[in-house]
Amino acid sequence: MISCREIGEAIRRRRKELGISQEQLAEALEVSYQQVQRYENGANRLNVENLQIIAQVLSLPAASFLSAGQADRIAEPPAPYAEISAEEKALLRYFRAIKGKKGKVLVIEVARLAAGKGTTRKQ
């Protein structure tokens, strides 16, 4: 059985790999950074919802935390965007927080125009 401490260590390890601060992870979870510290230290248990949010922020399947520290763990290929800048991470984090499809389409359109790629919207 996987302990809270092992799950927390896996979260901390991946968070540091991606250069995400405890404060940034706390913002995504809508908790304090102290709560993230407690999760990482194994002092507090994570509920399924928060584990899924953490997995999404850290670009991992949630199940990967449940097999943390096991020798028979299946190797996963690195996430395609593991080496992105802080600005790209922030943009992705805010994009994921957009609830409606219209908002996401608008952000994509703005990014496309800013990149000088023109528009795909029908006039």
Provide a descriptive summary of the structure in words.
59% of the residues lie in helices and 0% in strands. The chain is mostly helical and 123 residues long. α1 (4-18) crosses α3 (33-41). The radius of gyration is 17 Å and the shape is elongated. The mean pLDDT is 83.
Short description:
The chain has seven helices and no strands. It has helices at residues 4-18, 22-29, 33-41, 48-57, 63-66, 86-97, 101-114.
How is the topology of this model organized?
Blueprint: H1 4-18, H2 22-29, H3 33-41, H4 48-57, H5 63-66, H6 86-97, H7 101-114
Which keywords apply here?
123 residues, 7 helices, 0% strand
Number of helices: 7
Biggest β-sheet description: none
What is the number of domains?
2
Percentage beta strand: under 5%
Low-confidence stretches: none
Mean pLDDT reading? 83
Number of strand elements: 0
Radius of gyration: 17 Å
